[in-house]
Amino acid sequence: MIDDNRSRTLDREELNNGLRDFGVTMSSAEVNQLFNELDKDNSGLISFDEFLQALRVGPTCYTFSFL
User: Fold this and answer.
1) pLDDT score recorded for residue 8
2) Do the domain assignments include residue 61?
3) Domain count of the chain?
4) Is residue 60 part of a domain?
5) Which of the residues 11, 31, 53, 66 has an alpha carbon 20 to 30 A from that of 43?
């Protein structure tokens, strides 16, 4: 839903816009930190798999130290 260009990746702008669309208010620094934590391969994009890993619920659930 937040992958505006349907590339199956998210850039910083798409992540920021998606968070805002869902009512999540974060500073630019917080969005950048979140992006960097999700972009595990440092490609400059969050892949679909990286995004799914972040959303996983259970004993291996991803947690964000700054939230």
Assistant:
1) 92
2) no
3) 1
4) no
5) 66
Of residues 44, 40, 60, the one with CA closest to residue 10: 44
Report the Cα–Cα distance between both ends of the chain, in Å, rounded: 23
| CATH code for the domain of 42 | 1.10.238.10
SS3 2: coil
Domain housing 24: 9-55
Residue 3 lies in a domain: no
Q: Which residue has the tokens 């702008």?
A: 13
47: left (phi over 0), alpha (psi -120 to 50) or beta: beta
The whole-angstrom separation of Cα 41 and Cα 57 is 21
- pLDDT single digits (tens) 29-67: 999 999 999 999 999 999 999 988 888 865 555 555 554
The pLDDT of residue 56 is 80
**Whole-model pTM?**
0.77
